[in-house]
Amino acid sequence: MQENNFDVIVIGGGPAGIMSAIRAGQLGAKVALLEKNETLGNKLLLTGGGRCNITNATFDEKEMAHKYGKEGFFLLHAFSILGVKKTIEFLNKNGLKTKVEKKDKVYCATNKTNDVLKVLIYLLRNNEVSVINHSKVKEIKVRAKNISGIILENGEKLTAKKYIIATGGKSYPSTG
Predict the structure, then answer these.
(1) Which residues make beta-bridge pairs with 7?
(2) Beta 157-165 vs 146-152: how paired, if at all?
(3) How high is the pLDDT of residue 171?
(4) Are residues 87 and 1 in the same domain?
(5) What is the domain extent for residue 140?
(6) I want to staple 159 with a disulfide (CB 3.0 to 4.6 A). Which of 74, 119, 149, 174 is the partner?
(7) Which residues on adjacent β-strands are paired with residue 160?
(8) What's the pLDDT tens digit per position in 30-42?
(9) pLDDT per residue over 26-81, tens digit each?
(10) Which residues, at least 6 apart from 105, have a Cβ–Cβ distance to it below 8 Å?
(11) What is the mean pLDDT of residues 103-107?
């Protein structure tokens, strides 16, 4: 069985997984991003009717959290770290122009979801993230209540100091 060691392994090649892998790479970690599909961002490519509704243009963190109902307070910390304004600035700084429509929806200026994905993939490469497609996780090894490794369907074992599970929801099962 082949074994590969990383600082961080991210399971899930959607927007949350991609952003997590980019950030870990920016901080100097040796990162593997595992995606069970052939390509990254399948669900992302469907958002906004293929135009990519990137975020909501609510710039006040408390107001944004309120939009998620009474449980939205849970998101305040995350919004304070990477809220709407910082998300838009991050994308603009990395070459993706955005626009606001209908007063509250932020889209890619080109109306092409693939342009968003191209920027994210560029950032993965630029931060030396190892993207491993077709890598369905067969087993998550646990020892003393901590993840000790990942076994892929092909038998490969991956280990890391830290793990991020960003497999998303089931809103579009066909995307993985």
Answers:
(1) none
(2) antiparallel
(3) 63
(4) no
(5) 1-45+113-176
(6) 149
(7) 6
(8) 999 999 999 999 8
(9) 999 999 999 999 999 988 888 888 888 898 899 999 998 998 898 889 999 988 88
(10) 48, 53, 56, 57
(11) 89
Q: Where are the alpha helices (DSSP H) in 27-166?
A: 47-50, 61-66, 76-81, 84-93, 113-126
C-alpha span between 122 and 7 (Å, rounded) = 21
Residues 41 and 123 in one domain: yes
Closest CA to 36 of 52, 14, 5, 15: 14
Same domain, 120 and 107: no
Size of the chain in residues: 176
Q: Is the pLDDT of residue 6 over 50?
A: yes
CATH code assigned at 23: 3.50.50.60
Between CA 99 and CA 97 the distance in angstroms is 7
Q: Residue 86 pLDDT more than 90?
A: yes
Looking at residue 50, its amino acid is G
Position 170 scores a pLDDT of 66
Which of 120-146 are b and which e, b meaning 16 or more Cβ less than 10 Å from the residue's Cβ?
A: bbebbeebebbbbeebebeeeeeeeee
Give the residue from 158, 127, 126 showing the smallest Cα distance to 140: 158
